[in-house]
Amino acid sequence: MPPRDKAPFTQDDCHFIREKIVSGDIKTEFDDKDQWMNSHVLTFSGIDSSYALPDNIAIITLQELEDGRVLLRLAHLYEIEEDKDLSVTATVELKKLFPGRKIKEVKEMNLSANQERTEMEKKRLHWKVEGSYGNRHVSRGGPVDPKELKLELSPMEIRTFIIYFDGVSDQLYYAM
C-alpha cells in the first residue's frame, strides 16, 4: 500500500488493512479483545442520559440535513382507547433529545417535510361528513412550546419537525 498524505483511504485499502489485522499479519495496539473493549466507549446516545422518550412515542426519522438542520419525525404508537395507560397524549422534551446543542428554532412541517404545517392547514379541504363520524373529535398535539421546547403527540399522531441550532457548523453527534 503506498503512503498517503492525509488523503482518505479507499474501500480497497480498508479491506486490505482489515484482512491483514484479521490474519494476524498486523499487530494492533489491542490484541486482547477485553483490553480493547475496556478502553473504548461501546455505546452512544445523543439523548440526555436522564431522559427517556415516553413508552408510547417512537422516533421515526432523525436525519441531519446538509446545512446543520435536523429533520425529526415522531410517532405516537397507540390508538385511542387501545390501552388505558398508553393511549394518552404524550409530551416530548426536545432540549433533552439534543443535549449540548442550543435549539434556535423548531418548525413543524407536513409529513413529507416539504411544507410548513401552518401553510398546509390554510389549504386543507374541509369535508362535510354525515353520520356518527362527523361528530367525532380528532385530538391533535398543540404547538411546540417555544421556551420549554416541549411538544405533544396524541394517539396515532405523526409529527414532523425541522430543528435549527445555533452554531450550525457543529456536527450532530461527536464520537468522543
Automatic annotation (TrEMBL):
GO molecular-function terms, A-Z: alpha-mannosidase activity; carbohydrate binding
Pfam families: Glyco_hydro38C2
InterPro entries, alphabetized: Gal_mutarotase_sf_dom (IPR011013), GH38_C (IPR041147), Glycosyl_Hydrlase_38 (IPR050843)
Gene3D superfamilies with a match to the protein in the record: 2.60.40.1360
Biological processes, Gene Ontology terms: carbohydrate metabolic process
Annotated Glycosyl hydrolases family 38 C-terminal domain residues: 56-161
Protein name: Glycosyl hydrolases family 38 C-terminal domain-containing protein
Upper lineage: Eukaryota, Viridiplantae, Streptophyta, Embryophyta, Tracheophyta
